[in-house]
Amino acid sequence: MAVAAELSNVSKVYRRSHLGKLTLTPGVDGVSLSIKQGEVFGLLGLNGAGKTTTIKLLLGLLFPSQGRVSLFGQTLPDLAVMNKVGYLPELPAFYKYLTVTELLQLYATLSDLPHSIVSDRAPKVIAQVGLAAHVNKRLGEYSKGMLQRAGLAQALLHDPELLVLDEPVSGLDPLGLMELRQLLLDLNRQGKTIFFSSHIISEAEKLCHRAGILHQGRLARIIDRSEWSGAEGRLEQIFLETIHA
User: By CB neighbour count within 10 A (0-12 exposed, 13-18 middle, 19+ buried), where does 224 fall?
Assistant: First the structure.
């Protein structure tokens, strides 16, 4: 199966200098990981495990201290290949006075997308994420779940092949969780590759084909769905066994 994204022996060390003193803080250490095209892959870990660092490395927002990061076979940094990626950060910050249509127009302008594409794609994407009935509301009136959908709409606007989501289910209520889960499953059925980070194991259990456990900056284990399928709570058990080993 073709590979959408790959990290090969990747390490990231943060260097901070204060009053002449240099502090080195490890972010991730020797991570090797391949994400297959067409799969849903969850990167699991406790807070501070290095999940966001890994995502920023995949997006070219950080440069590795060691190792190689590639998307669709192209070593980063490569601006052209980034057109194939849609990104939703953990805490998207939107102007509350905008509607979702205005939000998409803003991001399209910032991304230099042609107006013809935006006028055609925006209504389709808004309907796709389930916000057609709320298209005239300001974002300040949206619930957390609706804001996540708006964030997904901007990530999908340019029809990317790979979606990278940082803690997409964090802070959602049970209804919001169910709605977002169904949306991600629908997007995967439509052919999107989805890579997301989370510390909510139960949602990863429902969504993922494979999951990786990141612990203290190291990739401790990769698990296939067959290892937890049919046994509710098994993925959480594997996670706890792994981080306490």
Answer: exposed
Structure-block tokens of residue 235: 């993925």
* CATH numeric code, 3-243: 3.40.50.300
Distance spanning both ends of the chain, measured CA to CA: 32
CA distance 29 to 12: 7
Secondary structure E strands in the chain: 3-18, 21-36, 40-44, 66-71, 74-75, 85-88, 162-166, 193-198, 210-215, 218-224
CA gap 11, 139 in Å, rounded: 38
User: What contacts 233, CB < 8 A, 6 or more positions away?
Assistant: 202, 205
The residue with tokens 């601006």 is 79
- For the stretch 53-91, pLDDT in tens is 999 999 999 999 999 999 999 999 888 899 999 999 988
CA distance 157 to 19: 45
Beta-bridge partners for 35: 5
Residue 1 in tokens: 């199966």
* Whole-number Å distance between alpha carbons of 75 and 113: 24
Residue spans of the domains in the chain: they are: 3-243
Q: Residue range 229-236: average pLDDT? A: 90
CB 158 within 8 A of CB 107: no
Provide the residue type at 101 as one letter: T
Q: How far apart are CA 68 and CA 78, in angstroms?
A: 13
